[in-house]
Amino acid sequence: MRRLALPGIVFATFIFLAAPVLIVVVASFNSGAVLSFPPTGFTTRWYERINPLFLHAVYVSLVVGLSTAFLSTVFGVPAALALARGRYAGRDLLNSLCLSPLMVPALVTGVALYQFSLAVWDVTGIGLGGTIPGLVLGHMTFGIPFVIRAVIAGHARFDRALEEAARNLGATPLETFWRVTLPVLQPSIVSGAIFAFLMSLDDVPIALFVGGGDATTLPVRIFTTVEFDFGGDIMAVASLIVGASVVLMLLLDRLVGLEQFFGSRH
Amino acid sequence: MSDVRFEAVEKAYGDFVAVRGIDLHIRPGEFLTLLGPSGCGKTTCLRLVAGFIAPTSGRIVMGGRDVTALPPHRRNTGMVFQSYALFPHRTVAENIAFGLEVRRLSRAECRARVADAVKLVRLERLVDSYPAQLSGGQRQRVALARAIVIKPDVLLLDEPLAALDLKLREELQVEIKRIQSEIKITTLFVTHDQGEALSMSDRVAVMRDGAIVQIGAPDELYERPNSRYVANFVGRTNLIPVVVRGRTDRGYRVASRTAPPMDFEVAGPQTATFDVGEACFLGARPEHLHLGTGRANAIEAEVRTLTYLGSVWRVEVETTAGEMFTVLAHPGEALPLSGAIVPIGWRAESCFLLKDT
């Protein structure tokens, strides 16, 4: 009995976590009425009926996610280094301010960004609302803090003597940054960028307020479809996302190892 | 090979003076050690040469070139750090090649020089390993190879052996010394371990509170320390507070500052002169004290502890004045029992006087 208890707990936890996902996948192949359970027959017609708008939404989500991850890294890494290394008055305050977007509910940020985009329109005539750049700007408000947090955490284990060693061996400050500082911090930077990407992909509130029109992301498209046009094709879309995630995970595990990817490399 | 010269170098952090006006000349090819307790300024001196910090005043001259204002990457020094500071994302070979890469050397020359350096530190089998896969001793060798492969003007060693266990430390002491004399490189070594300093150096500079107290060859420091501080930091010294009574043709006659006073004769090598009536200290090394009488000087003491050290016994005794003395007894000598009162004797030639500093 004892020997079965621990694996039993793990299995029960797994079922609890995976059951909703499995039901969606099963429902996507159900030929009966939407959301009826148990399933009454097998069909692939929901997959054939996926609205092309979803494809465009996937494209928008990927563009916004990758841009958010990239730009958050470009701004977040130097900021994190300045916060982790600088010795100046008000550093702790600055640190808190930089991380504060993570503590504000995304809905509030969404409303604020909407107002901000109106103000920008009034003053400059540049319309941010409903555009991909506007959405990327919105997502960077939490993308940058994610990168900052990951890099500061990684920097705590960074031996400054590494940089001194590089300088001593003849590297200029710039060479030292590219050849030593960045590569050594790379696992933290990558994990920060991945988190920024995932949070961008996952976001609804900000995308609801700032997006829309041509800049409708996948979660918003699903959200509005569920509200106004609920059908089996939603299940099909959801199942495809699950499938894509599983394939991605397997690939990552094969190539670098999941533990290494999400943890530290050294 | 070039020399390194400290000219009135001073380094202050606010009110705290880490290095106070040091003048020091490290000769070409010399192995010079800065020895002192932590916080004495020895590492600051090393970092001043590497260029990680700038002196508050004074100059640092390397091979006749004033480098005081040069940034670290233009000084051509090779430093070995206490934490090794190996690049974790690079293999052993890539670590060693770093300094050559930033010097824009050709691939072929890089490879040849890395191969030479690897051979010199005997790491041929590990060139493709990452630092995380190496033992402490192996990491130290990589750090050493990485520092010397760039043919630096001066090699800087910052307590490179402090993190290693005793056996490995002794092994690497010999190894570093072998490599240093093989490539005849000017070396500045920093340590708080007097054994390391004595066994490896051509000259040792003993430091205290940011200044050099005494500088000289290891045997010079050991046999003729110029102060109580050096006498106690370099080896072990038994001290008796004394007053100078008079001069003899070979040295001094002194008396202990006890009641009643005991008379001693001092004829060992001396770094300073002493006046009649001057209060100072008589010093004698443990290996020069003997159990028993029949020598120029003698005191009585009570045996406290006996420790077997393999080749000798270390006998800790307490004199009637309450000072703890260490005496070495060789196998074959009659050993006293703990608590026994024994005479301790030593020759006039094997003790010296020290100023009261």
Detailed description of the structure:
The complex is a heterodimer of chains A (266) and B (357). With 266 residues, chain A is mostly helical. Chain A is built from twelve helices and no strands. Chain A has helices at residues 2-28, 45-48, 52-85, 91-99, 106-124, 132-155, 161-168, 173-202, 205-210, 218-228, 232-255, 258-262. Chain A is globular. With 357 residues, chain B is of the alpha+beta class. Chain B has helices at residues 42-50, 92-101, 107-120, 136-148, 166-183, 194-200, 218-223, 228-233, and strands at 4-13, 16-26, 31-35, 57-62, 65-66, 77-80, 154-158, 186-191, 203-208, 211-216, 238-247, 252-256, 263-266, 279-284, 290-291, 297-308, 313-319, 324-329, 341-346, 352-354. In chain B, the strands form four sheets. A six-stranded mixed β-sheet of chain B has the order 6-7-8-3-9-10, with helices on both faces. In chain B, strands 13-12-11-14-20 form a five-stranded antiparallel β-sheet, with no helix packed on it. In chain B, a hairpin with a 2-residue loop joins strand 9 and strand 10. The longest helix of chain B has 18 residues, at 166-183. The radius of gyration of chain B is 24 Å and the shape is elongated. The interface between A and B is medium-sized, with 19 and 26 residues.
